[in-house]
Amino acid sequence: xxxxxxxxxxxxxxxxxxxxxxxxxxxxxxxxxxxxxxxxxxxxxxxxxxxxxxxxxxxxxxxxxxxxxxxxxxxxxxxxxxxxxxxxxxxxxxxxxxxxxxxxxxxxxxxxxxxxxxxxxxxxxxxxxxxxxxxxxxxxxxxxxxxxxxxxxxxxxxxxxxxxxxxxxxxxxxxxxxxxxxxxxxxxxxxxxxxxxxxxxxxxxxxxxxxxxxxxxxxxxxxxxxxxxxxxxxxxxxxxxxxxxxxxxxxxxxxxxxxxxxxxxxxxxxxxxxxxxxxxxxxxxxxxxxxxxxxxxxxxxxxxxxxxxxxxxxxxxxxxxxxxxxxxxxxxxxxxxxxxxxxxxxxxxxxxxxxxxxxxxxxxxxxxxxxxxxxxxxxxxxxxxxxxxxxxxxxxxxxxxxxxxxxxxxxxxxxxxxxxxxxxxxxxxxxxxxxxxxxxxxxxxxxxxxxxxxxxxxxxxxxxxxxxxxxxxxxxxxxxxxxxxxxxxxx
Length: 491
Fold this sequence. Notes:
By secondary structure, the protein is of the alpha/beta class. The protein folds into three domains: about 5-60; about 65-95 and about 115-310, Endonuclease, Chain A (2-Layer Sandwich); about 325-490, Endonuclease, Chain A, CATH 3.30.870. It is about 45% helix and about 20% strand. The chain has 19 helices and 19 strands. Strand 5 and strand 6 form a beta hairpin. The longest helix has 26 residues, at about 5-30. It is globular and about 85 Å long.
């Protein structure tokens, strides 16, 4: 064959393949996907067609396998049946604002979990103190301990927690632990961590394992990001903190001197049963084992009778649901606020709906504040987050920067003077769409007062970013911010 003809033939075939990829992308990618995410994927495919399509095939499916979705649907039915059978006394919702009643209804419709009164809660912002408190709680266990963390590491900080689990097993207490597969495997000395769990007799399982040769595979960046501990069905802990040293045992973090700042809440009361139900769901999904015997009905737990008793509602979310429960919760609360909205998130990369909700709150005359870290531990996310600062500052949002070398990893927000949310969910596309998360909505002035103290601590430690300062940012930095913002929509 003539060399020129062969060259032209190769060029024509390449052109046709490239054209076919783009046509198929235009048909497939926008289907059931948000416009911003679809546009980001199409941009990637059009600019770098072969790499773009490979990336889409690898991480473009934002749902879990059909089997897991079916199991989650079955679990939701089980949870709803249990809730109906518990005969839980309804809180006095007549005193609630109408908009808050609707948020509670929305959450229960999406998750099956009701709002429950008669609870008490405390906030723990001391990193090592939170781990020590959970270990001390495990030392009181008589029946079961349920532990679930995104990242688990056995090190000097968590050694006391592991020892408490060992003592519990020795007393005849059943201790179960769930850890996210990829995230915990990446930790230094992870093999020793799970060998230690085996040695002390803890029953454990991976969450969302990526083991294609064992028939366990889904999009590898769909992770279980939840963090919770339940002891005997009477006490629960949940929040932002993982079970690992404050540096995450990462040589890179240690070299930079990074330290994570977290917030955890300790819960007592009937809502502990709902936290336990989240563990039940994940344990069943990963092991196929139902834990019907390790359940204390909410109606059998003492209700707090003090004037400061809290109404709580647990809201799980993630790719096992099709409704973005966490995003809907956050948006509903922000739209319902009448005085102030105070947000704390380490990774703040909102979608259009969230940006509109926040800036609209400013336009309605509300006080809106955002707490974020001055520095970042994840380059792309950090720059994507910064890309929103100008828009937020011009709308009237006050932004406070928590100082280096700390990463403000706490995840919470408060509305007016009586509603707050704390949990594992960041305010970004990943947490709203891709990660399994759990949030706790709390109604009670005493809890919000505690949250206000935490927020004041952030202000005292950090500094406020002004629009004048932001406008002096160099073009190079804001260019990187905008580029990262484009990639953040790939989900």
